[in-house]
Amino acid sequence: MQFSRRDTLQLAGAAGLAGLGATVFMPFMARAQGQGDSYKTDGGEIVVSPVSHASFVMSVPGLVIYNDPVGGKALYDGQPAAGLVLITHEHQDHFDPETLAALVGADTKLLVNPAVMEMLPAELKGKATVIANGGKTTVGTVEIEAIPAYNTTEDRKKYHPQGRDNGYVLTVDGRRVYIAGDTEDIPEMRALKDIDIAFVPMNLPFTMDIDQASSAVAEFKPAVVYPYHYKGQDPEAFAAKMAESAAEVKVVQGKWYG
């Protein structure tokens, strides 16, 4: 990459926060006004708006992306209409056909893993493209790669078996965004390079604990990481672990609950 991610991936509208250390608390009032968290790209910006748990809206140059939207249409009131919806896997906190039906418009594209494709209502299947682990596609100018997401601990493998579910890496106007989905600390995550923004889960027994998550993030070193899908675990404890590590990673605490 021809730029310093940690110098140029700035938090717009939050002057001075980038120098506060490992944890950045973004102003929730800005989120409520629909502004989200803004990050510069080569020719525009990425705006991240946490919604709930694993659901968020991300506006990028030329495209509005909804990730795993669930919980009903009202949660997304005030957000721009979706141009692309990403679904990582079939669990109800990631895949909700009723919410999808309410949010998917005439021009919205759906990108789903093979298991979800089989479960989609007929009226949504025509808008959907299936992508499996290792697959690549492009929507507009956004390049998308499906990354494995799975459990490795023996008694957790029943939740997310290897080969079924997706994470995603998006290349957006000179930046790379990693959406982990539901996964543990897998080799494919640790091997990622040049990630600017990462969304990493940590709740038991379904994904990782704080030690696994912080260890993995410290290895692949995104410029910014959002702990998400963390119900039942303490994201501030994760941030403290990151601060203790040698990794120069900014931890941004989104308002995912309450």
Notable traits:
258 residues, alpha/beta, 8-stranded mixed sheet, 20% helix, disordered N terminus, globular, 8 helices
Q: Which range best describes the helical content: under 10%, 10-25%, 25-40%, 40-55%, 55-70% or over 70%?
A: 10-25%
Q: What class would the helix/strand composition place it in?
A: alpha/beta
User: What radius of gyration results from the CA coordinates?
Assistant: 17 Å
Strand content: 25-35%
Largest sheet: 8 strands, mixed
Description:
It is a single chain. This protein has eight helices and 16 strands. The protein has helices spanning 5-8, 28-32, 97-103, 114-119, 122-125, 187-190, 210-220, 235-244; strands at 11-12, 23-25, 37-40, 45-52, 55-60, 63-67, 84-86, 109-112, 128-130, 136-139, 142-149, 165-172, 175-179, 197-201, 224-228, 250-253. The strands form two sheets. An eight-stranded mixed β-sheet has the order 1-3-4-5-6-7-8-9. An eight-stranded mixed β-sheet has the order 2-16-15-14-13-12-11-10, covered by helices on one side. Helix 7 (210-220) crosses helix 8 (235-244). The longest helix is centred in the C-terminal third of the chain and has 11 residues, at 210-220. The protein is globular, with a radius of gyration of 17 Å. The model is unreliable at 1-8 and 10-34 (pLDDT under 50).
